[in-house]
Amino acid sequence: MSSTNPQLPAPTERTVLVALAGQPNVGKSTVFNLLTGLNQHVGNWPGKTVERKEGHFSYNGTTYRLVDLPGTYSLTANSAEEVIAREFIIREQPDVVVAMVDAAILERSLYLLAEMVTLPAPLIVALNMIDVARQEGIEIEPEVLQAALGVPVVPMVATRNVGVRELLETIDGVVNGRIPCTPKAPQIRADHQKVLDEIKTLIDGCVPPPYPPDWVALKLLEGDEEVTRMMRQCLSEAQWQAVQDVLRAHDDALVAVAAGRYEWIGRMIRAAVTHPRPGQIGLTERLDRWATHPAWGLLILAGILGLTFLLTYALGAPLQTLLDRAVVGALADAVRAALAGAPAWLASLLADGVIGGAGAMLTFLPILVIFFAVLGILEDVGYLSRAAYVMDGVMHLMGLHGRSFLPLFLGFGCNVPAVLGTRVIDSRRARLLTILLAPLVPCTARMTVIAFLAPAFFGRAAALVSWGLVLLALLILALAGALINRLLFKGQRAAFIMELPLYHCLLYTSPSPRDS
């Protein structure tokens, strides 16, 4: 008699939660796409219009769930992005947080890191764009920075897939306990340490989990609105009054907290970073003397836009013709031949209506692909921020600011992504006004109609008439913007704050991070 052993249940595969955090334009999306590939989905955070990106990948037999947190400059509740980033880290308690920082502007990037090291999640610093830093004459010693921070530091050039494997190895090591993570957090300015201790004592036992009491006390000193509202509900009237008395007696506490962080940043920079010698001018500064000049900047922008359209139509028009003949035309002819014995209306419906209509949309694909590819290159290089800067004065005439230029410029390719692109505009008023104006930008479809009809009606003057129509459309756009702003928004103007990133030379060859 043979006995059978009961089949044991298969062990469930472990899933590790990784959060990807950092400022805007530090390469988070590049790393996210490299790690997750097609295994990702995009939506909105619950109750917010902020984009949520999530994906998964496997490494060493472990499944990792990667969440790309919104780009933010701090973890203070000044915007929805900042609240989402910190609430996710505190409430979801990821197994590890990868903090992306820009090596070329490390001092500015470290302020966010100074806030993140006070949160409970294990931290890894991904030191991205070290090639751009070296291009600017900045040398960083990752090992020294790692010792100063107390957390793993991985040098990377994400755009060239350099350092990504080292990052995966480090994540695996931190998650499995092989790599220690003991962050050295910044301290509040010495003259306010007793004040912080007093706040901790007053709120002791009243902080709702999973919020760390030390972090909550620090946020109360900073005057964080979300944390203040939360603790107002958790404390009794007497306790809250005592906390308020302490805060009112030290209304400079926010300065003391920030001073402690900047002192911490200064120590990190002095320990690990070597700046160019005084008087040495970097590539970005040399180029910006021209690219951001009030007069030359506009001429350079006009030239780049002209080259963009020239390249788009020089390459896209032949491909458009080829698609029309080889694909759409051939398929329509094949349908007519197959339906030779069918009613004429049926053959015409399928060949001219369905295939001809859908095919006409297909032929615009090369122009759109080339146009947006050129825009992507300009954005990666860092020029689009300069374009927004030099156009700020022109945009103000319509009650907008320079950031609105980028969505409107997308409208030359297609008005639909132009409207979608308005989500990068912070002000609701400016965003709404840009949405109203975006359909007035002459897109490729209208340009195609103009290019087709102008020669038929105006002969040799077709080019001049085409340019005139485009300029007329832009003039109407400007007048409509000024009129709408004056009538609907009472002539309000939007403030414009934008960080100009360093230029990223696409031809620059970086050594491996192992040589750093």
What can you see in these coordinates?
The protein has 516 residues and is of the alpha/beta class. The protein is built from 22 helices and nine strands. The chain has helices spanning 28-36, 80-92, 106-116, 130-135, 142-149, 164-175, 193-203, 213-222, 225-234, 237-249, 253-272, 283-291, 296-338, 344-362, 365-381, 383-390, 392-396, 405-410, 415-420, 428-437, 444-458, 462-488, and strands at residues 15-22, 40-44, 51-59, 62-68, 96-102, 123-128, 139-140, 153-155, 273-274. The strands form two sheets. A seven-stranded mixed β-sheet has the order 2-3-4-1-5-6-8, sandwiched between helices. Strand 2 and strand 3 form a beta hairpin. Helix 7 packs antiparallel against helix 10. The chain is elongated and about 85 Å long.
Entry summary:
With 516 residues, this protein is an alpha/beta fold.
Uncertain residue ranges = 1-12, 506-516
The tally of beta strands, per DSSP, is: 9
Beta-strand proportion: 5-15%
SS element count, helices: 22
Give short descriptive properties of this protein.
516 residues; alpha/beta; 7-stranded mixed β-sheet; 56% helix; 9% strand; disordered N terminus
Topology:
Elements (H helix, E strand, L loop, with lengths): L14 E8 L5 H9 L3 E5 L6 E9 L2 E7 L11 H13 L3 E7 L3 H11 L6 E6 L1 H6 L3 E2 L1 H8 L3 E3 L8 H12 L17 H11 L9 H10 L2 H10 L2 H13 L3 H20 E2 L8 H9 L4 H43 L5 H19 L2 H17 L1 H8 L1 H5 L8 H6 L4 H6 L7 H10 L6 H15 L3 H27 L28
